[in-house]
UniProtKB/TrEMBL annotation, chains A, B:
GO function term, MF aspect, one: glycerone kinase activity
Protein name per the record: Dihydroxyacetone kinase
Organism: Streptomyces bingchenggensis (strain BCW-1)
Annotated Pfam families: Dak1, Dak2
Lineage of the organism: Bacteria, Bacillati, Actinomycetota, Actinomycetes, Kitasatosporales
Domain DhaL, residue spans: 374-576
Length: 583, 583
């Protein structure tokens, strides 16, 4: 369990700050994450990695010469926001284009994808390569749906060495994809992880049992088995991975493989070595040559007790990239020239990233819209209170089928939205502008899938309200309907997928109907909130859309979706504000 | 807790084997431990470190260019034997002499000291430097009694860099002592460690409490306090260390210090970074410049949840040694030339050390002595059974004031002694030679303080019995009396110090008296065993001699000494064999 923290909400930021303070020779802080202490060589492709916090050394510990040029660092188990990825990529870019590479999780795909679009729109050539090495998360025929786990390192290392060798972006992308296609991981776990401030692990495994086929966000495994001896564990890991060789390969005999025996967080080095002893023997017996094996913690899942094995099937082209020198805080290999001369005498080196310059002007707004903006801010305050009250509960619900970070993300997002709204109101913003500022702040600060989607919701409603007129019920209904469309498009989800869409669509529908019937806003919203509550409850009967990628989806039957529940709670809280306004 | 192992007794050996398999570019296995993969440069001082297993990266992970030349690796939490240290030192020696450096623990002091004597006797110039950085283990006036914890790294690094720079042994010793005198550590813990196969931690800390001033062998702390925030923990660590500056220094302002924020085993990197963030700020505020800070696991205590801070107060002479490049499996800094070319294609590289050539001849023995040797072997078998039956209990008793490894050490030692005895008997050995072979095997295989002392006991008795005559009661009594003298001399212990001496002396006395009265051996031994049992019980009322170095000594009041109890148990088991022989 996690014991050393100040406030749980600040944990990821404070850890990153301390990490940078301890590793100035390798990295420097930029808005959104870290980049190498040394600038990217002109014309070199910049490899930018990233993901949630709680996986150290992934991702910030893997930034340095011969490895990543930068890492976008999200909150605990939450993807960084598109803005963070964009900022880190801009800081890392050396004129040779950018490769964004990360594990295959919905939130990361969303935010890195948005950043890619934005970078390309700005004239920076940018591509993404998604890591999908976890063979327990989908069958081989659907390997694109697999999660990324410790195989991240094989793909990152390959891409970075190719970039370091001066290859153009097309080649770096091709080699990174090849590395991903030839990397397979499989793991076991003995206990789940406990996030800072949480009072229970995300999942538990009965004493003397283990979970087989785990994820790195506290997702429980595919199945359970008795705790094995170290030798039996090694046999399970090796035989499972030898059971799925790269396409077109018949026998492992004579193959060469990069090997990563990865501790998930609470397994001791000595235990890993005892397991590796037998992994090495079994690979040798199978005729596989282990090249530059790595035994240690590379991609962790906070304090989860577990271990995974990764085999990276090398080719003549890939091997020199795997064995090339690298010098990152948590990964060093071979010899590189001297590191950046960052004098230890300079603790005054800027530690905190420069914040985005705060906006100091807002578009002109009518008196009516500025009055409405006050109500909107009251509504945001109610959202903060509701989220705060229910954060633990939302986290628990989310932990059943997700990664348990929903409460944290919603809290960070809603607080940031309120703060941005307050600042906008102070500058004289109308209701529309206030909501757009709040939207950006929520998406940026919360990260994760839900952060991006709440950004869409607030922005669509804000756009519909505008800054000119007193917002009427029709404008609100139009905005909410647009929000539902936007969320479905961006989240690639439909009704029945057990997401917030299952609540947002009926909410928009009920609101639209009531408004069309001529009901005033507060009454119409009451009907919409009631529909939302019923719909949220009903999600308990659904299976999540990501069923295959999250093999424990069945376990969520009987539990509603956390995103759906929080949306219904928020709808009810907003009604409270509208009803009070009406009085 | 430790989950991945095969048999607990094989854990340390198997971990070392896996470690070497994963790190062939850095190290190779030799009898007793590991040495660098590259030979020591001719004439260079060889720095040999070591200690028990369970502290990874200490000690094997700290072997490599710029760091140690070799590490002697004992069993879990048990010092390596003198023979192991001797073997590693011989393998590492490059003609420039040997520095043995290690933490200040009774078993290590004993075995490294014996190895030093033996190396010097063989014409290899050898010295020892003991690390004593843990300020919680004794007051400043008695700093020589302090334990060695994570400050090990500062002393090892200094000595190794001095050796690498080509300095002679005198200078390397001087600089290592200077480094030790300027290194201070202090730590806190939230839970004790659980050894492989054990079903409970060595100590527990109540929920939401922490132990202040911990050891690295599961020794509980000096006092207890409420679990602090990360910032409060940082403040406690920094202010405590700033409270004891190096001799002659009035203020920390303007000083430069190597900083080690060390995880004890079950604290996550992210937590360490959150703490380091504030450590860095507080040092900066105190005017201390942190030079090459290290934040991570450097000297662990198995899976103990805790953290320690080390400040290494640099001088102009010491700083370049602290910042010099190094390349070991678990510690790298700066850039060194290419590592040894150990082809990954060669899994046939010898992995297991060549064992000591087995002795194939023994001195001639009389028929009577060979017959007595059979009885001696029966007695050793009885010792094995007794130790095996009581190993868990002995470990539990030892954990009250010691490190809980007594049962493990006794088991390994007695088994090795029996095996060596069996081989000797097969070669026709007499009782004296059989016991001397058993003595060497016990000391070598068990390591730790008790291993060395049991080696002395068996050897003294064996010497008294000889191989010529049928051993009579007088010879046995003479041998046991000599054993008591030998143990007191080597262990520097007296009656009343709460050690096995408190049983061995009355046992020898009762045996001598009964034999002088003319009682036959079995009867005399019965009286001796009875005296031993009473004496063992009485040790519960004593305070351990190492009271100051082990500040929790008071906690052992009411519990007998584990070494005393095992000696009494063994005395009774041997009586069983003698009585049966008599029938």
């Amino acid at each position: 369990m996690t014991r050393l923290f100040n406030t749980p909400a600040a944990f990821a930021d404070e850890a990153l700050e301390g990490f940078v303070a301890a590793h100035r020779r390798w990295v420097r802080r930029v808005p959104g994450g870290v980049v190498r202490a040394t600038p990217t060589a002109p014309g070199q492709v910049a490899v930018v990695i990233g993901g949630g916090s709680g996986h150290y050394p992934a991702f910030s510990g893997l930034v340095g010469r011969g490895l990543a040029h930068g890492a976008a660092v999200g909150n605990v188990f939450a993807s960084p926001s598109a803005q963070q990825v964009h900022q880190v990529a801009k800081a890392a870019h050396g004129g040779g284009g950018v490769l964004l590479t990360f594990g295959n999780y919905a939130g990361d795909v969303l935010h890195f994808g948005q950043a890619e679009e934005r970078l390309n729109a700005e004239g920076i050539d940018c591509r993404t390569v998604v890591v999908t090495d976890d063979i327990s998360s989908a069958p081989a025929e659907e390997s694109a749906k697999r999660r990324g786990v410790a195989g991240d390192l094989a793909v990152f290392k390959t891409a970075a060495a190719a970039a370091e060798a001066g290859l153009p972006l097309d080649e770096v992308v091709r080699l990174a994809r090849l590395a991903n296609a030839r990397t397979r991981s499989f793991g076991i776990a003995f206990s789940g992880c406990t996030l800072p401030g949480a009072d229970a692990p995300l999942f538990t495994v009965p004493e003397s049992r283990m979970a087989v086929g785990l994820g790195i966000h506290g997702e429980p495994g595919l199945s359970e088995a008795a705790v094995p001896t170290a030798d039996e564990a090694a046999e399970l890991l090796v035989s499972t991975l030898l059971g799925e060789l790269p396409e077109g390969v018949e026998t492992p005999r004579g193959l060469r493989a990069g090997v990563i025996l990865n501790g998930l967080g609470a397994v001791k080095y000595e235990e890993l070595f005892v397991v590796y002893r037998t992994v090495a023997r079994l690979l040798d017996e199978a005729g596989v040559v282990a090249v530059d094996p790595e035994v240690g913690e590379l991609v962790t899942s906070f304090d989860m007790a577990g271990v995974s094995l990764t085999l990276f099937w090398l080719t003549e082209e890939l091997e020199p990239l795997w064995t090339a020198p690298a010098d990152a805080p948590a990964y060093r290999k071979g010899a590189l020239g001297p590191t950046a001369d960052v004098s230890p005498e300079s603790p005054e080196n800027p530690e905190s990233p420069e914040e985005q310059p705060e906006q100091t002007t807002v578009p002109q707004a009518s008196e009516e819209s500025r009055a409405a903006a006050r109500t909107v801010l009251d509504a945001l305050a109610a959202v903060v209170r509701t989220v705060d009250e229910h954060a633990d509960e939302l986290g628990r619900i989310d932990a059943v089928a997700g990664d348990g970070d929903h409460g944290i993300g919603m809290r960070r997002g809603s607080e940031a939205a309120y703060e941005a709204g307050r600042r906008a109101l102070g500058l004289g913003a109308g209701a529309g502008t206030l909501l757009c500022h709040a939207a950006d702040a929520w998406a940026d600060r919360a990260g994760g899938t839900s952060g991006a989607l709440w950004g869409v919701i607030l922005r669509q409603v804000g756009t519909a309200l505008g800054d000119a007129d007193r917002p009427d019920a029709a404008a609100v209904a139009t905005g909410v309907a647009a929000a539902a469309d936007g969320v479905m498009r961006l989240g690639k989800a439909e009704v029945g997928d057990k997401t917030m869409v299952d609540v947002l669509v009926p909410l928009a529908g009920a609101l639209g109907e009531a408004v069309a019937e001529g009901q005033p806003l507060a009454a119409a919203w009451d009907a919409a909130a009631t529909a939302a509550e019923a719909a949220a409850k009903a999600t308990a009967e659904l299976l999540p859309r990501l069923g295959r990628a999250r093999p424990h989806a069945e376990k969520s039957l009987g539990t509603p979706d956390a995103g759906a529940v929080s949306l219904a709670l928020i709808a009810r809280a907003v009604h409270g504000v509208l009803a009070a306004k009406n009085d």
